[in-house]
Amino acid sequence: MSTLTLMIVIVFCIGYLCIALESVTRVNKAAVALLMCVGCWTLLMLAPGAYYPEVADEGVLHHIAEVIEHHLGDAGGTLFFLMGAMTIVEIVDSNGGFNFVRDTIKTRSKRKLMWRVAFMTFFLSAILDNLTTSIVMIMVLRKLVQAREDRLIYAALVVISANSGGAFSPIGDVTTIMLWIKGVITTQGVLTEIFLPSLVSMIVPAAILSLSLKGKFDKEQNLPKADVSQFTKAQRDVIFWLGVGGLCFVPVFKTLTHLPPFMGILLVLGLLWTVTEIFHYNTAEDDTMAKRVSDLLSRIDLSTIMFFLGILMAVAVLQEVGVLTALGQGLNETFSGNYYVINGIIGVLSSIVDNVPLVAGCMGMYPVAAEGAMAVDGIFWQLLAYCAGVGGSMLIIGSAAGVVVMGLEKITFGWYMKKITWIAFVGYLAGILIYWVEKMVM
Question: What is the pTM of this model?
């Protein structure tokens, strides 16, 4: 490894460490990711000819500009997909589309509520995303569970169920979105082969946690109906089904048109935006729906978008200088190509550090093959989708869902590690075992 390559790796590792220690440094991880990205690319520009010897000296700068535009295009597809999906969910939520969640899981039995929360979170996170689903479920739990000790257990289950549900859906988690957009997993493949392992990784922890909950709540909780807008119930239902149904339609749209997934998301967003404006004509509100949706767009967490941009572009540098390829070869040689062990380790690492750069790194480390474990929907890529998603449940800081629940319910790192980590790990291993059995039987 050359000195310059080593410097790039050091800058990346320092940035990565600062991102992992965000709660200690108090510096937003998006800022660190952007600095890391620019720092790595700047170092590469100090001696570009060393990395592109096949390009003439006078053309190397033009070549690097093309390389950056290529990687930026790949990252942009993921970012536009996320922004569109987040906006659609925000529109549905602001118009009371998720009120049915509260009415569906409402019960006095603590254990019944546990299972209803688990399954509702699991399937919602597959349709929406694990971050949004976690927020919705925590808000619902605050209405249903008054005792903080009990609510923490439910909140921990929300984290586990959201990550498990997101792992088997191409639109349920940022990492599966990345793999799906990259084309290494397909909608049919991940739904048919990862669903059962993901379900088991949720059921096992839910069964263990349910043992600590007995009896019933003191009284039935009456949920107030939120006055969310002047739209009628029928109009709110149309908005809900357009939004959620549209998200489910995106994979179909990609299959039919062969256009990038973000184009499908923009189609759904444009349709939903148009319909809400038409509905607004019959309301007494003074502002237009265009202004309302503009307000919703302003609520999108741009710091998260900037974080993903910085991470994906920084990982692209490691890919360009050959570090990821060398690392992938090292893992293969160390574990003799045992993809269950390799992905198992990646899953554990995803609970310590963010799974987005891990998956981005793996996509750069391992080339897509025509057949075998590295082929589209091969063992490696499907296991990566499962392990990177479900593995993040082992620590409260290991996933976006965990971080947001940690902030909403003030869960401490120590409480989660002591009470929940081993339970999530058991579920994680159980899911891998189920996947192995599937492959042995098929």
Answer: 0.70
DSSP code at position 369: P
pLDDT digit string (tens) for 25-84?
A: 888 888 998 999 999 999 988 887 777 877 777 778 888 888 888 888 878 887 888 788
Q: What are the tens digits of pLDDT across the range 112-129?
A: 889 999 999 999 888 877
Compute the distance between CA of residue 365 and CA of residue 286 in angstroms, rounded to an integer: 54
pLDDT in tens, 389-413: 899 889 877 777 887 787 778 787 7
Torsion of CA 436, 437, 438, 442, to 10 degrees: 110
Give the tokens for residue 113. Answer: 């509520």
- How would residue 229 be classed by pLDDT, with cut points 50, 70 and 90? low
Cα dihedral sign, 422-423-427-433 = positive
Q: How far apart are CA 230 and CA 292, in angstroms?
A: 13
Bridge partners (DSSP) of residue 216 are 109
Closest CA to 155 of 351, 350, 412: 412
Which residue is associated with the tokens 């919602």? 124
Q: How far is CA 50 from CA 26, 43, 45, 140, 365, in A?
A: 37, 12, 10, 56, 20
Report how far Cα 114 is from the mean position of its chain's Cα atoms: 23
Q: Which of 332-368 are b and which e, b meaning 16 or more Cβ less than 10 Å from the residue's Cβ?
A: eeeeeeebbebbbebbbbbbebbbbbbbbbbbbbbee
236-245, 358-367, 424-433: range with lowest mean pLDDT: 358-367
Among 207, 74, 175, smallest CA distance to 383 is for 175
Query: DSSP secondary structure string, 374-393?
Result: TSTT-HHHHHHHHHHHHGGG
